[in-house]
Amino acid sequence: MSILVYLDNAATTKPCTEAVNAVTAAMTEHFGNPSSLHRAGLDAQLAVDGARKIIADSIGADVNSVYFTSGATESNNLALRGISAAYGKKCRKIVISAVEHASVEETAADLEKKGFEIVRVSPREDGRLYAADFVNACDENTCMISMMYVNNETGYILPVKETFTAVKRRYPHIITHSDCVQAYMKLPVKVNTLCADLVSLSGHKIHAAKGVGVLYIKKGVRVLPVVTGGKQEKGIRSGTESVPLICGMGAAAEKLCPTIKERYERLSQLKAYMLDKISGIENVVVNSPEDASPYVVNISVVGKRSEIMLHFLESKGIYVSSGSACSKGQQSGVPAQFGITGKRADGALRISMSAETDENEIDLLADALAEGVEKVRG
Amino acid sequence: MKEIVLVKFGEIVLKGLNKKSFEDLLTKNIKRRLKSLGQFKLTSAQSTTYITPLDEDIDLGEVVDRVSKIFGIAALCRACVCEKNFDDICEKSYEYLDDVLSCAKTFKVNAKRSDKAFPMKSPEICMELGAKLLEKFPNLTVDVKNPEVTVTVEIRDENAFVHAEKIKGAGGLPVGSSGKALLLLSGGIDSPVAGWMMAKRGVHIAAIHYVSPPYTSDRAQLKVEQLCQKLTDWCGSIAFFCVPFTELQEAIKDHCPEEYFTIIMRRLMMEIAQRIAAKDKCLALITGESVGQVASQTMAAISCTDAVCRIPVFRPCIGMDKTEIIEISRKIDTFETSTLPYEDCCTVFTPRHPKVRPNLSDIEKAQNSFDFEPLIQKAVENTELKVFSDGGEAVAENAGINNLSTPERMAEKTVKLLIEKGITISTAESCTGGLISEKITSVSGASAVFELGICTYSERIKSEFLGVPAETIEKYGVVSEETALSMVQGLKKCSGADICVSVTGIAGPSGGTEKQPVGTVYIGFDICGRQSVHLPDLWNLADKSRENIRRSAAAYAFAVIEKELTGR
Predict the structure, then answer these.
(1) Residue B57: its chain A contacts at CB < 8 A?
(2) pTM over 0.90
(3) Is A173 within 8 Å of chain B by CB?
(4) Which helix (H) or strand (E) holds B181?
């Protein structure tokens, strides 16, 4: 295949040179175990702490509040399970949004089986979530609220700041958690501005390697570990730190952090360009709200099943996704929450861009879509 | 909506004729602390200082957080800027105070009208705005005695301000107003607290730490450096002296009775600290001792330690319980670092049964059985210096200004590095009179990297050739951070070299003042676009001859460039 137009960056991104170099350097130069007492160990520890500092700075957090995990799924598990274990004796209720990623939703469902009451707050008829609905769902008996910042399927930006500020004001004891995987390095993610006690981040969504993530835990918030062992990461997450992957994530964050704003503006223009291009195509409707993150554009080709369309685009060298990649084609129920149902849901495609995406690629996508609408049957 | 931060100065408002110098110092401290967050305008009027952000996306929360850690400030608050008419004040109040007022139960309105031309009088403003807010927020009732929220309206000359949440400042006196003292920093819980407490009283802190490899590890030293870095949030920049102590500890172990080990060790630490203090112009020592906490901190032990001290030793924790000390260490965020479990110099060779009530003559006799002086001198000579600045990493690092290498050797190293990396350099020198460019050009192959070297000795030439504004020289003086910066900016413009260096200073022997002693040399750098001005403490040089100050300034400049190029 001669061309490759990769438009599935919400699933994963191509690692940047900086990240690859950092991984290689860590594997060749800082191969020590950060827990070892000798210099090789210290070198590895310093490398990890360097990455920790970069990531802490990028989210406006204290360096000691950043804990490395194996990825955002683990971070989300640790957040929900760790908080419910620490605070769940008295407070048996957890409030989440109804549009969370599986790693939050399924974890919550598991806690539900174990006796927690899970309240899922849905978007109103206009497809939007409202802070007031979350506040009303909370009560004295609630131990935590979890809410993603940017929805992975539609790019919808949830009112995290408004919700968390209001919840904290009314119930200061409730721990706030935000899965910021699709927001990190795309929108400014500042823990204090968001009023978040816990924040999950992923490496491979920001052009670093798979297998590394972060859970920010505000100082003073107690999270009980899920993984026990050698007490690495201050006992919060045992297991020898993956020095290479962590260094890679640090390098990627360092590269991307200064350009969040300008990339957002460029991507907004690119999104507008795309919408303009595809709006003329028959039966194509846009599912993402106008003010969504420009990195994710969810569309439906009404009457064409997304999987078939996906493979048709693939044959043209264009990679997009149907629904959320984590559910491997299964409909996750999240589109329905946003009012995407019936034929629109069946034909939903997620086009997710990165800073490298250019207009030429959008042109190729638009042409292929138009061709697909004509050629593909059913 | 435009938001600013209002700052009320603390104790210094009570000062007499020297009040101005305290205020200037505090303003300088605030500016320095906020520099990395963006551009700000600081104005003072009617006992209040206004911090106005000039850049758009400045995080005011971070500004408040930083300013609340600056000593000398009694209180601060975020405030909303309103036009000076009642309608705008009401409108802005609704919006700005919505967060606070919509969930409060009781409130009152306070008004301060310093602009007497404003048509409404203070009580009138209170009543009217109070009524409006009651209307807007039905959940509120007025409580003038004990309100949950106090809404304050200030009518000033240029604008009106509305605010509701007052934040307590750090109190104390501006750091630097009380001179400098040297803190013995072990890595435990107490010493950072002691340093913090003295900084609160305006003392500029330098720190000294003793390392004993292999008995102590790199991690132990790193931990102390982390503590230093944490303290800079409160104390401003900290010069950190790291003393190699192994040989002395081994000598005590070998030559003195075990039970006296700790006391003699502490006496030697004090001795070294005093010598470093003298070099670094520190007027006193600070320790984290608390009476009776451990064997070496009984009154008898302390008096034995103090017997070697020729300058005051401040022990601000002396009457505090451990729990009280821990409370402060949590507040200043050093507790977590302090409790990292690394062996430090104080716990090496600890005797099993230390003398709790030592007798001074016994101790002196034991100590005199061995000549520690050569080892003390060696330790002082090999002491390493790092400077931690507020909000950043260690900035300047050198093996002590008295141990700088020669400019010739440094030039050779630096020029080779420049050639290797293909980086060009230019210089604009004043007090070094072309010494730096001379040393660069002495190295063979320099033509590949050396662009321009000018000696801008007079003020006129500084202005004409480098475009240093006459106002800058007039306002800040020709020997100043601002002039050095302006010089390097001008040099960058006319030479376009990757690295530009400017020097302006007082090489002596004449020309020094109390504020700017001989050896005050500002060195400006533009290293691949990153600008900075360094002020190495050349006034502390043992040899303060004109020649040595000029050579040391040159060597220092090379050291900074080398450090930048090698990323060390």
Answers:
(1) 261
(2) no
(3) no
(4) strand B180-184
